[in-house]
């Protein structure tokens, strides 16, 4: 039972490692050419990125619940309680995974040089952005991140 609880904790921890932070670059995106667009921040608002449900939490919870339930009562009761424990554990594991992977983020509305507007949702990074800030939109492999423009960047 202890081993199963450890497995569930590890699965929840690994699920929480996923991020949309502008400060974390995927290994697959390293050493790739990126497109860079200049812009100015129009607005920034906090949002919550929904947690994922890969099934790992449900499986781990089902295993823990099944083992815990299977150790209750006699032979006949242990089978029934084991199945109920597995179902309940799956539901609880799924909720834990969804909550563990939920992320506080920002929706950043940007106006580009040509007047077009873009909206990007990304996790809160190390730098704070405010309306009027000069920024760059960096697109790599279909993913976009917004970061403060380097010093000396021409104004939009």
List strands and helices in order, with pairings.
Elements (H helix, E strand, L loop, with lengths): L1 H14 L19 E15 L6 H15 L4 H26 L2 E10 L4 E7 L10 E7 L2 E6 L8
Antiparallel strand pairs: 1-2, 1-4, 2-3, 4-5
Helix pairs in contact: 1-2, 1-3, 2-3
Summed over residues and divided by their number, the pLDDT gives a mean of 76
Structural class per helix/strand content? alpha+beta
Tell me the distance between the termini.
60 Å
Strand order of the largest sheet: 3-2-1-4-5
Report on the structure:
The chain is α+β, with helices and mostly antiparallel strands. It has helices spanning 2-15, 56-70, 75-100; strands spanning 35-49, 103-112, 117-123, 134-140, 143-148. It folds into 2 domains: 22-50 and 103-148, OB fold (Dihydrolipoamide Acetyltransferase, E2P) (Beta Barrel); 56-99, no CATH class. It is built from 3 helices and 5 strands, in the order αβααββββ. Strands 3-2-1-4-5 form a 5-stranded antiparallel beta sheet, with no helix packed on it. The longest helix has 26 residues, at 75-100. It is elongated, with a radius of gyration of 22 Å. The mean pLDDT is 76.
Core attributes:
alpha+beta; OB fold (Dihydrolipoamide Acetyltransferase, E2P); 5-stranded antiparallel beta sheet; 3 helices; 29% strand; elongated
